[in-house]
Design brief:
alpha+beta, Udp-n-acetylmuramoylalanyl-d-glutamate--2,6- Diaminopimelate Ligase, Chain: A, domain 1, Rossmann fold, four-stranded mixed β-sheet, 16 strands, about 35% helix
């Protein structure tokens, strides 16, 4: 389950207005307008009459260069250019360097109810800092059912059918010194290509639901050392009932992956049955993945060695010494 992230101009102003030294000039009625892309635009070509690539869902930044260009034109040409840009129903406009907006820009913003801000920062500084903020807020995100743990410093996502016992296994891992990130619903953010970062929704943070006990607060029960807020996803462990285990899963195989939110992640399937110490097995699976990250793959090394012995008729191949 995923959605296209967006942020309103009102949210930007509330969260970053002070840091970005912004003040609202006019357009309060349009603060509900939103942007859905972290990159901003400078409407230089738009003021020259080329409007085709001006995106009304991006923040528009007007600096000294654009204002100086407008000042070189006759007033009637300036007004026509400004009105044409604001008639596109822009999400929001920021004038940098603390420059008070010319009357025609203020009037165009009022007429179209476009949020118009002034920032004391230089254009380059404003755009760099705002890009960092928007890149995080507008990063693609999705929601994944499961329990998300920090095990030996690796982000491990436990998945499986409802009722398979994910939360109970997560609780056992916590009692063994590992840390909870999220239970039941995990929000995963694709922070950059090939990287997923997972954390808990605010309303569920630090809580687990256990059948027979209800909802418990892990931070209150185990202390701050038992929880952490976020971690890069490094391994997905799928818990399955023993009877649902396929023959292919019982045999040694090559490393498996699973795609979540357009990112391929290492994937392990662990069957459940009474008497198995699943917490220990999950710890081993995590340690094994950490070894793989260092270039040590015991399973593949064994398979390669076995295939080599088969090729030599069951005898250990000569080393030549």
């Amino acid at each position: 389950m995923s959605k296209t992230p967006r942020i309103t101009l009102g949210e930007i102003f509330a969260e970053q207005g002070e840091a970005m030294q912004m003040r609202l000039i006019t357009g309060e009625q349009g603060l509900h307008r939103y942007i859905d892309h972290p990159r901003m635009q400078k409407p230089s070509l738009a003021f020259a009459g080329f409007l085709e690539n001006l995106n009304d869902y991006r923040l528009q930044v007007i600096g000294q260069t654009e204002l100086h260009y407008l000042a070189t034109k006759p007033p009637i040409v300036q007004k026509k250019a400004v009105d044409a840009v604001f008639d596109l129903n822009l999400a929001g406009v920021v004038i940098t360097r603390g420059i008070e907006p010319p009357t025609m820009i203020r009037e165009a913003a009022e007429r179209t109810q476009t949020p118009l801000f002034v920032s004391e920062l230089a254009s380059s500084t404003f755009m760099t800092d705002m890009l960092l903020f928007l890149s995080k807020r507008l990063a693609p995100r999705a929601w994944q059912h499961g329990v998300y743990m920090d095990i030996y410093g690796l982000g491990v996502l436990l998945t499986g059918a409802s009722g398979v016992g994910k939360s109970e296994i997560g609780l056992e891992l916590i009692s063994r010194g590992h840390r909870l990130i999220a239970d039941d619903m995990v929000e995963v953010v694709r922070s950059s290509p090939g990287i997923l970062v997972g954390h808990s929704p605010e309303t569920l943070r630090y809580h687990m639901e256990l059948r027979g006990l209800g909802v418990v607060n892990i931070r209150d029960l185990y202390g701050a050392a038992a929880i952490t807020d976020t971690k890069r996803v490094g391994l997905v462990i799928e818990l399955i009932a023993w009877e649902n285990l396929k023959e292919d899963d019982r045999a040694m195989s090559k490393d498996d992956t699973i795609r979540i939110h357009e990112v391929d992640l290492p994937h392990v399937r662990i069957p459940i049955r009474p008497g198995r110490s699943l917490a220990v097995i999950i710890e081993i699976a995590t340690r094994n993945q950490l070894l793989k990250q260092r270039g040590i793959n015991s399973n593949q090394d064994f398979i390669s060695s076995l295939e080599e012995r088969i090729r030599h008729g069951g005898e250990t191949p000569s080393t030549g010494k």
